[in-house]
Design a protein that fits this description.
By secondary structure, the chain is mainly β. Helices cover about 5% and strands about 50% of the residues. It is built from ten helices and 56 strands. The strands form 14 sheets. It has a 22-stranded antiparallel barrel. Strands 10-15-16-13-14 form a five-stranded mixed beta sheet. A four-stranded antiparallel beta sheet has the order 3-2-5-6, with no helix packed on it. The longest helix is centred in the first third of the chain and has 19 residues. The relative contact order is 0.11. Pfam families: CarbopepD_reg_2, Plug. Keywords: Cell outer membrane, Membrane, Receptor, Signal, Transmembrane, Transmembrane beta strand, Transport. This is TonB-dependent receptor.
Length: about 1000
Amino acid sequence: MKKIYAILILALGCMSYSYSQVSVSGSVVSDPDRQPIPGVSVHIKGQPSFGTTTDFDGNFKIQLKEQSGVLVFSYIGFKTKEVSYSGNQTLSVSLTEETSSLDEVVVIGYGSQKRSDVTGSIASVKSKDFNKGVVANVGQLIQGKVAGVNVTAASGEPGASQDIIIRGVGSLRSGTTPLYVVDGFALDNSNNGVASNPLNFINPQDIESIEVLKDASASAIYGSRAANGVIVITTKKGAKGRTQINLNMTTGFSTLANKVDVFSADEFRTQVAAVNGTLIDGGANTDWQDELSRTGVSQNLNLSMSGGTDNSTYAASLGVDNQQGILKNSDLKRYSGRLNLNQKAFDDKFNIAFNFTGTKLENSRPDARGIVGNMLTMNPTDAVYVNGEPNVNLSNDVLNPLISQRNYSDETNNNRILANIAPSYEFIKGLSYKFNLGVDYSMSERDVQVLPYSSETNTTLGSLNTILTTNNNVLYENTLTYNFNANAHNFTILAGQSYQKIQVNQKSYNLSGFPDNGVEPKNQIETASERPTQASSAVENELQSFFGRLNYAYDNKYLLTATMRADGSSKFGKNNRYGYFPSVALGWNISKEDFLNESEVINNLKLRASWGQTGSQEIPSKITKASYTESNTGNDTYPLDPSATDLGGYPYGTIYTRLASPDIQWEVSTQANIGLDFSLFNNRLSGTVDYFNKVSDKILLEIAPTDPIQPTPRYYTNIPKMEIKNSGVELALDYSSDKSRDFSYSIGGNISLTNNKVQKSPYTILTTGAAQGGGQTGATINGVFNGQPIGSFYMLEFTGIGADGLNQFEDTNQDGQILDNDRIIAGSALPDYIYAFYLNFKYKNFDLGANFNGTVGNKIYNHVAMTSFNRGQLANSFNTTGRASEFLNEASTNSNTVSTRYLEDGSFLRLNNATLGYNLNPKSIGLDNVMDNIRLSVTGQNLFVITKYSGYDPELNTGISVGEIQSFGIDYFSYPRNRTILLGLNVAF
């Protein structure tokens, strides 16, 4: 009997188990050709180890415990798909091929191409790969993301200007700024009255992609403005489908990332005594770096909407961005709005695109150089406050920097509109005409004022400098594009004409001597007691262009691109008004050849080669035209009145201030490039390697004439035979794991080696950086030498302190004396190579990404240390670092001579940004009917830097120039960089 009961119980258990299981079967095919796909992974969502795969005919069958759930179908080369099931069911699943990088559309000049058809060196960064954090402009988004592109911030100020160097410095006086093209509109780099980065007007969250055109083949379509490369910015557009709404909110907290190791109050007392100095002890213990910096709070709110139908799409956004710097009175506020529309009609033959961006910028800037100097040199024994008010009785009769901060302001208000409308019509199949009309209008008002102040030891007259600037840039373009195929032959022919006119007007007023009545000088200009000075200027430049391009492909294997552009600029004289810029490029899709077509390892292999020329018209306006002024000094006048007793009785004569230069030519950059693009192992590993050789000639400079008897002391000319050569290698690699799994990762990076050299220069030295203050004003720090990189440091070699307590330097020419001819070339401000790498991890709904970047081989001249960190400063009760007491026998009167004593290694590795994010399913909190996704994130910027440089930060360039030649690698009391923690919330509806 017991055996019978046991059998019944076992049978019931088996029936119960059988009843609890469901069987789901079906087939998986490709879309749209409906071909079965064998080997597709099929598993329960969240349980990748419990599943099966499809057989040779694409069929599958799986036993499941849960009555309902979600199955995940994944296969290399196809988009992963999730399908719900309920009970026993037969499913028919279709998978869509995943767009490969070869099918990715890349925006190029006046059009777009599939990545597989591109013959030039073009790097593309999509919005999902941008750098995260408190970001004000384009350069911050792509720093470290593109091989061959070195992005260096001028300082840590919010929205600071940047040097973006593409494939090395190729010009002396025209700087490194590339051409920026926003939605087909070429921006002009002329003055718009904003002291910070002029690209701050673009809301980074509005940008969909950024393409960097690096070689001449890719950039020659922009001709005379492409010598420094081209950056093409595409803003977000609408797409067919229901309305998508995104709300993004962030709050960031920024602090001083790194302190300079100056003496504490106790150390200061000891060190002043040790050098037999005069200690002025205020009895306090003050950290002036803490007192003069702050925690900057930054907030960003961005709301965007997009959607559309078959014929009409739209995208709109509103943004508010408020960034606080770590120095007081340092803020950048941006209010932006964007509207992009696209409308089709007449059976899709007529299309009209409209792009509009409106921005209001409010920029407050402190006297950063003065504040940084005070942070590092103020006596740490001085009290900051006395009875709750700023202490006015400081050492050496120094004005309390808190009062200086309160009295100084530099405020700019800028309103800018960028808009273009581009209607196009397809006359016959493949032949279309497009007209592009655009305007970039900017109006700025900048007030730099100092409030009047007086005390027993300090008196400051109130002053005001007001600058009004308007910049109007209008563009008219006409293009014809013809696409046609003939069997295996594919042609795209582009022909176009462009006209651009830029007008810049500026007025400035300087007033001083305001009463101390509690009213700001800008609000009482009529009370200024000193005689005002005023100035105005107006510039109008025109650029007339004709261009054409041929793209040819045979059987999608053999590719040809040929480009020609002719630019005529009003900046140049009548003898050389037009410049002509050709290019040609070849491509070979090797992986499409029969011998590789079936390869299981090589998915893509393409060889590229190109040659071309681009130009630079970034020269001052009017320099080809003669200019005059009046003078009654020196030989400019003659005493026609015999009764005249002094110059006041002499008549004014007309003299040249600038000679006519009708023969000035364009600077021309000739570049050759050979590159290889590849992807391996089912596209898991991809990369590109390029070798380039870029030579710039016809270098344009303002120089002094060799003949001392000249009508003007300086004149502009193209330096005969002089060249700037940049050659190097770029490598970029990316690897991604299987993204269909719960845990996936991707890693990658790039490295660029660039050899910069000046050749055939007729000058011993062209100074690019000089000392300021400290008794060394004008002393050369670095310059341009024949056979050396730009920014080569040129100075005496410091060997130590002699028995007399003074500097000792190497007698390099062994003549027994130390003179200027003993100076040596001691390295360059340009790095030997730049590199970057990233790590991305994803586990279920969590993701973690980190981006690193760095440089190797560059030097930095620590001008701050030369000026401030010396024994004489310490002896007079100004703070310093340990440099001042490094040599025990050094005399307090020892001079701070420009030498290698202050030259430091500028190499670094930085964790640029890291983000931890979590995608919260709205269904889990009952909001799935309202929201599509909720994302929470925390981002850290500038989390650490590994460097030997002793200053605030090794990444610096203050934007100073000498004789219009740009300086590099000199720390002139730069605004310190910050470390930021950013909290973010993104909600999609």
